[in-house]
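thread from #wetlab-drylab

HS: before we spend reagent money on co-crystallization trials with adenosine-5'-diphosphate, can we at least see a predicted complex? here's what I'd submit
DV: go for it
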Amino acid sequence: KSTAVRNIDGSINNIKEDDEEDVVDLAANSLLNKLIRQSLVESSHRVEVLQKDPSSPLYSVKTFEELRLKEELLKGIYAMGFNRPSKIQEMALPMMLAHPPQNLIAQSQSGTGKTAAFVLAMLSRVNALELFPQCLCLAPTYELALQTGRVVEQMGKFCVDVQVMYAIRGNRIPRGTDITKQIIIGTPGTVLDWCFKLKLIDLTKIRVFVLDEADVMIDTQGFSDHSVRIQRALPSECQMLLFSATFEDSVWHFAERIIPDPNVIKLRKEELTLNNIRQYYVLCEHRKDKYQALCNIYGSITIGQAIIFCQTRQNAKWLTVEMIQDGHQVSLLSGELTVEQRASIIQRFRDGKEKVLITTNVCARGIDVKQVTIVVNFDLPVKQGEEPDYETYLHRIGRTGRFGKKGLAFNMIEVDKLPSLMKIQDHFRKS
Ligand code: ADP
């Protein structure tokens, strides 16, 4: 039996289930990102803006005051510790708050302030005195919906009469119930039921429609169609906003299908580079040999912090057990853990409680632990058929140019993997 999964670069990989290879689950990754986030993610790129009406003036703001928000909302923003709009918010907020409302498609890497931006838009357009759903936000999973709801609650702390309700499976509301909460956050399937089957939400009264994490959304069977069916029933004056961390063609097609006459904002990600990384390989006979090679460098890797990557869960577990038995203090991060457990392991590692983290591809991307100085590929990242997985290699080892401290990378290579390593060397033109 095998499962088709998406690689980091978007290509499809068929994984046999007994491989125990950890697959990248977009929604889980996204949640993990939110749980471990500590601050805004920066990019040195300029925000690209494509206006639906290129002749209209383009506003950007440097302060939240310029937005003329309700007093209680501004208070909420400052209470969250925000001093000024993030890079994407500088451009997005004036568009999102404009009169008449404008539609927007915005793409930027996770952590750049998209959620905060649309929560602000929802809260500023809500009328607290009207007791029916006015803002509708679609999220790919239950957990992500709750995360967004938390932001609404924090930012709306002083908007006392504004309330949130979750349209998620398990929240059973009898047909025809009169919902008095103004902001509904939910997953597409349940929202669809609430609108059409249970008649809980009158879509013609929605003023702001948000589609969050569009890239994760289209990855889930049926969610694009559910979302489109919901969108079709919205009034034409409803503001429609779509957000995505990545922008492959498939996301773009979906965005254009669901957001009429949009402005488009993009902020490119800080590129990863191998420039500041010294890369080595150690030629080994077999797994035990690789382990010995790892032990030989162990003394030096624990000077800083190290991440060791394995290709399968089994290998990662084996390595962890070996190391613990040899008296080393290491922790294991793999896909068997819940997202909350992963977050807590990453947090401990960040706090320096463990010096060495052993992991599979679950955390190849997204987790930036700035103090990591050494990365070990205990197994080389390969796709099916031994083709090297360049993208994953870069994600494991690369750093963003701007914050790139010097780093070291070791590849433990079995003789038969040498050709793959040489391909990686040629690909990145780095010895
Ligand atoms: P995204 O939705 O793009 O992943 P978020 O809106 O969740 O980004 O923001 C990422 C992190 O930065 C969150 O912890 C959030 O509280 C914080 N944040 C968002 N906007 C600002 C801001 N203007 N100033 C400071 N921190 C911010």
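DV: The chain is about 35% helix and 20% strand.
HS: ok that's useful, forwarding to the group
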